[in-house]
Amino acid sequence: MLLPWEYGVRNLARRPMRTALTLLALATVVMLVFVVVGFIRGLEQSLTVSGDEDVVLVYSVNSEENIENSSIAARTPSLLTASLDGAAKRFGVTAVSPELYLGTRVKTDAGDGGLGLVRGITLSTPLVRRRVKLVDGDWPGDGEVMVGRLAAAKLGSTDAAMAIGQMIEFEGRRWKISGRFAAGGAAYESEIWCKLGDFQTATKRQDLSLVAMLLTPQSSAAEVELFCKERTDLELRAIRETDYYASLQQHYKPVRVLAWFVVVLVSGAGIFAGLNMMYGAVAGRIREIATLQAVGYRRRAILISLVQEGVLLAAAGSLLSGVVALTMLNGMAVRFTMGAFTIRIDSVAILIGCGVGLLLGVVGALPPALKALRAEVATSLKAV
């Protein structure tokens, strides 16, 4: 015969201070798990949605897969469009985007700032970067820039300092913010975009970093790759954009492995903390447990009741942490080397966080409960 369900619930209310401390400890552990898992999910999501299957990137073969270090001739876009027929067209405009991409120091009028990512673009860029949407303001004109919705987070600044109409400074020039854009969580959202010609003048460069081409459904990226291999004098390489960001995922694989290791460490620390608190809770109930055995309850029924108490506390802690994570952590911007991304508390993060919480409740309650039940009933009844 099992103990009544209400028995375990009442026991939690009988020791409010100990119950509150245990609940707080479990909620803290689960919250740390939510933070780490949300970080991993946000990073993976940002890299996953950044690529476009139909876009091919052409950049320098000497850049070692880092387009910030790439330098190609300014005539490359015209050579590509003249030699290849695979580029898509819309309203008579070829979907080829010459771009200058650079990491540089950016300063706001508020006095803050940091290393920003600036991309020089042309009017053909929206045809290629199809995820990018202007959400406020205007497309940049001469001496103007538009900023991604996470550009402020990348700089360690505030949204107010990066608002439309504010001024920022980089490459020795002051630029007026004319608009804000979003890109569905892609890496572009942490960038600053300006006119290619203005950026080349400011940096005193006439070259490009890359050329992005939107291919027609009938075309293949292999055609662009073959052109780059044949024109050895240009020293170009071509890669599908999705493959480029997939390589970045491999580059950040050690970071993700380390983050999962942190989840394991945090969970282990939480289990030991739970064991310590549950041992203290059970130690003060030795006579109660012995009395339950004396009146006829089996050890299995008492064990289930003690585990029930641990699981109830863990479930409450997981629920509390889940609500806080969804309301306060989800969507929080995080700075990273690749730019910035948002912490993502999705269904996977909720499942892992709550799963770890329930595991803490079960594993933390079992050892002290088993130890208490192994003691002789007569001895336990005499315990103080």
What does this structure look like?
This protein has 13 helices and 14 strands. The two termini are 28 Å apart. The chain has a 6-stranded mixed β-barrel. The model has no long low-confidence stretch (mean pLDDT 84). It has 384 residues and is an alpha+beta fold. Helix content is 51%, strand content 21%. The protein has helices at 5-14, 16-50, 76-83, 125-128, 151-155, 196-203, 221-230, 241-251, 253-283, 286-294, 299-329, 347-374, 377-381; strands at 55-60, 89-90, 93-94, 96-108, 113-121, 133-137, 144-148, 167-170, 173-182, 191-195, 210-214, 236-240, 333-336, 339-342. The longest helix has 35 residues, at 16-50. The protein is elongated.
What labels would you give this structure?
alpha+beta, 51% helix, two-stranded antiparallel sheet, six-stranded mixed barrel, single chain, 384 residues
Q: Please compute the radius of gyration using only Cα atoms.
A: 29 Å
Strand line-up across the major sheet:
4-5-10-7-9-8
User: What share of the residues lie within helices?
Assistant: 40-55%
Distance between the termini: 28 Å
Assembly form of the protein: single chain
Q: What is the string of SSEs from the N terminus onward?
A: HHEHEEEEHEEHEEEHEHEHHHHEEHH
User: How much beta, percentage-wise?
Assistant: 15-25%
Q: Low-confidence parts, pLDDT < 50 over ≥5 residues?
A: none
Secondary-structure content class:
alpha+beta
How would the global form be characterised? elongated
Largest sheet: 6 strands, mixed, barrel
Task: Let me know the number of strands.
Answer: 14
Mean pLDDT over all positions: 84
- What is the number of helices? 13
